[in-house]
Amino acid sequence: MTFRNIKKNPTPFDEDTLYDHAVKVLGRRMRTVAELKRLMRSRVESGEHGEAKIDRVIARLKEQRYLNDTSYANSYARLRQENQSLGKRRVRQDLIQKGVHAEVIAKTLDAAYEDINEEELARRHLERKRVAKPTNEKESARVMRLLMRAGFSTSVIFKILKKWVVDDEALAALEFMDNDGPESSNGNG
User: Fold this and answer.
1) Is 151 left (phi over 0), alpha (psi -120 to 50) or beta?
2) Which residues constitute the domain of residue 20?
């Protein structure tokens, strides 16, 4: 692989070229305002002048309805719920990571998960992942970790495990792990 064709410092885009670049980026897939700003920063000069260009392009895109964090959050929550069967916590975490404001996330998730039975959604997630009924404590812990990563609360996870008639000793060990173990300090519990 040759490195001759790679430019170290490409010339900064003017405002019209930056707008065209942003439209092309949005044409590939939806993005949040924060994601688009991050992508555009490498295409403009650093400093106030570059940030002003980015802000004008963002304002223009919002005015033309090419860029809207609320519609992005609605679509993202709906798709993650329907296609991947993810819980509310996981979707919230993903949207925060993508730079959506907390108020928009709260409104969106309250509306998206209003009529959803979280236990049924968790069961769909397990079916999608083809998870079999756990037969011992180790497999029960694996199911619990899987559902925690998918954004489900411990109360829903324990309901599912109890309905699967998992041994009470295994449930007690999992509850102990949830309260005192390393997973209780990661912010997902």
Assistant:
1) left
2) 15-63
Domain total in the chain: 3
| 137-142 average pLDDT score | 90
Is 6 domain-assigned?
A: no
Model pLDDT for residues 32-57, shown as the tens digit of each residue:
999 999 999 999 998 999 999 999 99
Q: Give the C-alpha separation, 14 to 182, whole Å.
A: 50
pLDDT at 6 over 80: no
Question: In sequence order, which residues have a C-beta less than 8 Å from that of residue 39 and are 6 or more positions away?
Answer: 22, 25, 31
Q: What is the pTM of this model?
A: 0.79
